[in-house]
Design goal:
Number of helices of chain A: 15
Strand content of chain B: under 5%
Shape of chain B: globular
Oligomer: heterodimer
Distance between the termini of chain A: 24 Å
Number of strands of chain A: 2
Strand order of the largest sheet of chain A: 1-2
CATH topology of chain A: ABC transporter involved in vitamin B12 uptake, BtuC
Structural class of chain B: mainly alpha
Number of strands of chain B: 2
Number of helices of chain B: 14
Largest interface: A-B, 38 and 44 residues
Largest sheet of chain A: 2 strands, antiparallel
Order of helices and strands of chain B: HHHHHHHEEHHHHHHH
Radius of gyration of chain B: 22 Å
Distance between the termini of chain B: 54 Å
Strand order of the largest sheet of chain B: 1-2
CATH architecture of chain A: Orthogonal Bundle
Number of domains of chain A: 1
């Protein structure tokens, strides 16, 4: 390609990135609609969709509010278990079960947030990690309800009826698009939160908490509310994940799952709307490719993460945005 | 046989009859009923066990606190360095067959790795916000743990205590495993050595001054970045020796560092970040609280320390020995 060709390509790319950034909800949803046609197999695209939502929820506290939480697995796990138990044990309607998963996760976030918000800065990561581990132990020990180490089985939602339309969830494509409806709705709400005055306060806290407090905002309460909302988004992701797998493995509440949110959000770009999905896709595709030829994929994922922290702390999408706006 | 005064107390408060009308199969009452029937001797032994388990936590938390107090870095790879210590111990033991040599070699090996990590990976991140070193050490823990898996495999390896330290001795309240007694002694020696180093030597003075005001120390002509490197090495070395010392009590597996990292965090939050006395007191407190819960309500044992942490957070968010405003 000639020098001019590269420049033209660069300009085209820059324009595309600007358009995507301006119409963020529409752009993300459009990308997600096309995703299953690009990704090698459907199960992977469902994973990207749900872990993307999980990373988006995490991004609300870290990317937008500046609180580094290492405990979001608790919300993902509790959302998955609450939804799973409702369906498997109590035979609750699937739609109600998803709502239940979201609400219970929000409730856990209220308690965890109430304790963790009292601490500042770097303590926050440690306290959230410890409290999430406590939730993990509870889920692990409460064998009667959760199945303990073996995980919860029998979360089978095979067919759903939406407004008289019978949909077969055993078909992976149908399942993907049913879940996309929930994710799209969540993304729209997420975008509205960011645009609201509340969202502006969040970013003010991230930039300078003391000044935000001096301006008369109740920063403790705002942070707490952001934490609860974030927990609900992650709980929704977990609830959908339970229906997707039709079991709930105990690993959904694990320490590694919390770390996964951090990794995905940072790889994609913290504090950006599109970043978490790109991060989730990059992480899962990398895992998928690496496991083909080595069982030590975590070594390479960890090394890549270290590389990003050192040289590209803005992440993939964040670096692109920065390049366009420079 | 001794019976605890708590039994009497419960009897007085609730009345003996009420005690027996409680549904015995209900989960919530079981611990309380069990609580009442435990002889005092068992309590004492269990507290001692807690002190032994707490000793490992003290060593971990001291390293974590030292690194934080000096570098303002929360070392998420602390559990990974603990694991490295255990495996380095297994390696040295396999090579030489000498347990005591491990006590010297392990902190040196792990500390050297720590020095390299600080120099190569952490140093570029200073001044870029407190979250970045934390994120880096988190990513590093994945790399280290998987590297251990590559080298040593996934199967647990045994490391047995030397013959001198096996068996049990009578400590007045009953027989207690000798190795655990040794563990408490080793912790006291290491922590007092560290304390003497920090308080009584001129290099310790530089470290303490550097923690308070690195700028002035630099102006006085001292290479502060080298001091930081040394402190990170000492902190990781302490984590390494904690891993080595706890290896004979458990199976040495690559994942052994994860629960321990969480426990060390709980200890640091309870004790107060950056405080050495806090790390010692809170480490022993968490150890004792856990082992007592193992005795009275085994199903809650894993969660007990989090309850303790929650109480401390509610009443004294900066930790027992922490200073208000340190984190701001």
């Amino acid at each position: 390609m000639s020098d001019i060709g590269i420049r033209v390509f660069g300009n085209q790319l820059a324009i595309t990135i600007r358009v995507v950034a301006r119409h963020r909800v529409a752009a993300v949803i459009a990308t997600l609609v096309l995703l299953p046609w690009v990704v090698p197999y459907e199960a992977l695209s469902v994973n990207i969709l749900l872990f993307g939502l999980y990373a988006v929820g995490f991004n609300l506290v870290y990317g937008y509010t500046g609180l580094l939480s290492f405990g979001h697995a608790a919300f993902f796990g509790v959302g998955a278990y609450a939804c799973g138990i409702a369906v498997a044990t109590f035979d609750v309607n699937w739609l109600l079960a998803i709502a239940l998963g979201t609400i219970v996760a929000g409730f856990v976030a209220m308690i965890m947030g109430g304790l963790a918000i009292r601490t500042r800065g770097i303590y926050f990561a440690m306290v959230t990690l410890a409290l999430a581990q406590c939730v993990y132990y509870i889920l692990y020990q409460w064998t009667d309800l959760t199945g303990g180490e073996n995980g919860l089985r029998g979360v089978s939602v095979q067919a759903v009826n939406i407004l008289g339309l019978e949909l077969n969830l055993l078909d992976p494509m149908t399942k993907y698009y049913v879940m996309l409806v929930f994710v799209a709705l969540a993304l729209w709400i997420f975008s509205r939160i960011l645009e609201s005055p509340f969202g502006a306060v969040l970013e003010a806290i991230r930039e300078n908490e003391k000044r935000a407090r001096a301006c008369g905002y109740d920063t403790l309460r705002t942070k707490w509310l952001a934490f609860v909302l974030s927990g609900m988004f992650c709980g929704l992701a977990g609830a959908l994940y339970a229906i997707h797998l039709s079991i709930v493995p105990i690993e959904t509440a694990n320490y590694t799952m919390s770390g996964q949110a951090v990794m995905m959000a940072l790889l994609g770009g913290m504090g950006t709307f599109f970043g978490p999905f790109i991060g989730a896709a990059a992480y899962l595709l990398l895992e998928d490719v690496l496991t083909l030829w080595t069982e030590h994929w975590q070594f390479f994922v960890g090394a890549l993460f270290v590389f990003f922290v050192l040289f590209f702390p803005r992440g993939i999408w964040g670096s692109l945005l920065h390049w366009v706006q420079r | 046989m001794f019976h605890s005064g708590l039994q009497l107390l419960c009897g007085l408060v609730f009345g003996g009859e009420l005690l027996h009308t409680w549904p015995k199969n209900a989960l919530a009452w079981e611990p309380i009923l069990a609580f009442v029937d435990i002889p005092l001797q068992l309590w004492a032994l269990q507290i001692f066990t807690g002190l032994a388990l707490g000793s490992v936590l003290v060593l971990l938390a001291v390293g974590l606190s030292l690194i934080f107090g000096m570098l303002a870095v929360v070392n998420f790879a602390h559990g990974a360095f603990y694991t490295v210590g255990a495996f380095a111990g297994v390696f040295v033991f396999g090579l030489t067959g000498n347990f005591w040599l491990g006590l010297v070699a392990v902190p040196l090996i792990v500390g050297t790795i720590g020095l390299a990590v600080e120099r190569v990976l952490l140093r570029p991140l200073y001044g870029r916000g407190v979250d970045y070193p934390l994120l880096l050490t988190f990513g590093l823990s994945y790399v280290v743990v998987d590297a251990i898996r590559m080298i040593f495999g996934k199967v647990g390896l045994p490391l047995s205590a030397p013959a001198v330290l096996q068996g049990a001795v009578n400590i007045g309240i009953g027989y207690f495993p000798l190795y655990r007694l040794f563990l408490i002694g080793a912790m006291v020696l290491i922590v007092s050595g560290l304390w003497l180093f920090l308080e009584k030597t001129s290099y310790g003075l530089i470290i303490r001054a550097g923690a308070r005001d690195p700028e002035i120390v630099r102006v006085l002509g001292i290479d502060v970045s080298r001091v930081w490197m040394v402190v990170f090495g000492i902190g990781t070395g302490a984590a390494g020796i904690a891993g080595f010392l706890s290896a004979p009590m458990q199976s040495v597996i690559p994942e052994m560092g994860i629960p321990v990292l969480v426990q060390a965090f709980v200890v640091t939050v309870v004790g107060g970040m950056g405080s050495l006395p806090g790390a010692v007191v809170a480490g022993l407190l968490v150890g004792v609280a856990t082992s007592i819960t193992v005795m009275i309500a085994p199903q809650l044992a894993d969660a007990a320390m989090f309850g303790l942490m929650a109480i401390v957070l509610l009443l004294r968010p900066q930790g027992l020995f922490g200073h208000r405003g340190l984190m701001e």
